Batch of 2 targets.
Target 1
Amino acid sequence: MAAPSSQSPLLSFEDARRVVEEHAALVAPSANETVDLLHSAGRILAEPLAADRDIPPFPRSTRDGYAVRATDLAKLPAKLTVIGEIKAGPPPGKVLTLNRGEAFSIMTGAPIPPGADAVVMIEYTSLQNDCVEITKTVAPGENIVAQGAEAKRGSLVLDRGMRLNEAAIALAASVGKSRLQVFVRPRVAVLTTGDEIVDVDAEIGPTQIRNSNSYSLAAQVQEAGGEPVLLPVAPDESRRLRELIEQGLQADLLLMTGGVSMGRYDLVEQVLAEMQAEFFFTGAKIQPGRPVVFGRIPCSCGAGAPAPAREVFAPVPHKYFFGLPGNPVSTMVTFELFARPVIEALSGMSPRPLVFLHARLKSEIRIKPGLKRFLPAILSGQYEDSQVELVSWQGSGDIAARSRSNCLVVIPPDREHILAGEWIAVMLR
Ligand code: AMP
Ligand code: MG
């Protein structure tokens, strides 16, 4: 039997994260599909989108007011003859040219007429019969967006790998795309282990524990852009565990929970080693989640028959797996820190750095140094006045404490005492 822990050390958080990011850069989605724009939210764009015309397609007024020649306003107040009105979306036809001494009444979003080079906002004007009196000068270009200033016709407006949020969807709509090519969601197998673990609906004995990790992971997988595939609970018994791992390797990624600590019945690493797995790390200097495992396994398994009407890419030589610690909060935290970037990469999303925000600490923290901590906390305050405070918890099994929290406070391994009022890193999860 291979001994994974001798070749795959306990890494610092940053090293473990870097290893994951390096491997995430090697994976790719398996196929494309087409979706309606209305159902594209959260999906990953698989085609580059170009502007089908200049944006804006004409010089556009950004204000209600008067389209003028800026040089006509050298002396104030200036009186100009109003020669007409331009609404947004005027019928195509003969557009009058603005001459010296003239103004057009113009609405927000309307095209600037030839000859005009600025718009005076309505609050600096007063209308008297056919004339408008203007009390403020304007610089050329003021209150106008030039044709093509936001994007030139044919230029790239959205690239593949972009997660479709509301702004990207609006941009796709504005370049005339009602259907989009997106990447197929990766299938992520979730395998929970432990003799004590029973299904949510099953009758439960006094020392048994309901399976919560499969459900929290399914939610996280979905949110990260994957499609969770829940496997039956594996007992702490090698043969059945191996069978279920083999099933899990049919998916694009395998997430296991439990069975990765140092206990006599923690069999996950041993079984994976027997299957010729390569381990990149078998622990990270973090809390919660220290025994987290990341590796890959040579792939003899076919990816399954692809559905028709999809562009299917080349098969992969190996499958990645994570062994996440079984304690429920450790499972959730290690998913966020390590599994999420791999799922995002498998879903075709361009890599993005993990960044923490900062908030002021409400009450001091004293803690043993040595591990990077990701502790459940409550972010409160309002607007610019953010404050954060740890929730009291019973350790990494305490789901109730985690569900009362709305973020994780991030404490570097060299800090023992952090004072109230200090700025502290926060992970918004
Ligand atoms: P393990 O990592 O297998 O040593 O498990 C650590 C702790 O997490 C034990 O108290 C387990 O009962 C608990 N645990 C493991 N898997 C699950 C699960 N799927 N749902 C809830 N608790 C779990
Ligand atoms: Mg266990």
Target 2
Amino acid sequence: MSKSRELFERAQKVLPGGVNSPVRAFRAVGGDPVMACEAHGATLTDVDGVVYTDYLMSWGALLHGHDHPDVRRAIQQALERGTSYGLTSPAEIELAERIVRLVPSIDVVRFVVSGTEATMSAVRLARAATGRDLLIKFDGAYHGHADSFLVAAGSGVATFGLPNSPGVPADLAKLTLICPFNDADAVRDTLGRHAGKVAAIIVEPYFGNAGFIPPADGFLAVLRSLADEAGALLIFDEVITGFRVHAGGAQALTGVTPDLTTLGKIIGGGLPVGAYGGRRDLMERVAPHGDVYQAGTLAGNPISMAAGIAGLELAGRPGFYDTLERRTRTLVEGLTAAAEVAGVPFTAAHEGSLFGFFFHAGPVRNYAEAKQCDVKLFTRFHAAARSRGVLLAPSAFEAAFLSAAHTDAIVADTVEKLADALAAAARA
Ligand code: KE4
């Protein structure tokens, strides 16, 4: 028996499904989940010594690859001063100042310990600031596991949310309204039917949780104007796109400025982190300056902050994002060409180093279209890629991430291996 299998069997005795986050169980693609042992740069080694080129990158947290020496040094130096104070310390102020400088919508920011805490808090703040209860989100978007987000679209185009997890009260779920991504008419109609009652529209400006789906031209700008007309706030959930698609996130890239922004992943350099921020008049409603309560023992943890500062420093180097974008484009173009040779329906896209693909002729503009992709072919492709040492997200409805550690040579090697995997999956 492999060490991975042995460990997973032990894990299933003491962890629900053997994991601490569902997707890690690899149930969508089958096979034993990869059991990580260590990772450096673009590669991850499992407990059986199998080496992968990693495109998970801790779900996008690792913009510089695993174990970057500058990030490691910053963590080590912070560790020498202790791990947690439960008091404010200089690093959280420095990281906040960097985020304020880089992210157009953020005058004031509050750190928390996960993306879920960030989005949950941003929605509470939006409801307090507007005195309204309804929330609009988009079908297929994921904003973490707070109750208000665990709702599924009912039938019809724009519907009241239905709980999509036991334990989510129906009365709470129905405060969330769901529209198809890239459908401005559905948003306009929903706002009209609930005039004066919608607190906020929350959106992943580039979908990273239904596969990768970019916004249609002008869609985000229309959301901005619709929110303004309706007196609702616009929240960009940039937990994935923040510092990924641009140094200032999707809002800097598109020129559309939300009222509130949520961040995570990259700003912690791979350590636990989340943040929400926005206009000063809104953020000063947050306790203790204001009356909207939110708190956390490990919020602004000095180790996470040190790693985040090191990561943003590295990302500030000239040409950093251009290189990431060029390499990602090479990978996406290589994959697309290989799919054509293999004769399979395929559509791929990227923004910066965030990319994704569907076994679908395209276009894929929303989750309903994404779900028409050939999931069985994806499953065969995922296994074929894995057996060739390339680790992709274990779901057809996740994105993929390239890091600064994925050199031109690594990208070229990946294209070769994935072309072979595609041909094998198409033949099977
Ligand atoms: P966390 O609570 O997992 O730190 O962040 C929640 C979250 C919020 N918003 C967006 C846009 C996100 O992508 C996430 C978390 N992303 C998933 C990956 N699709 C985390 C992976 C997992 O759930 O294990």
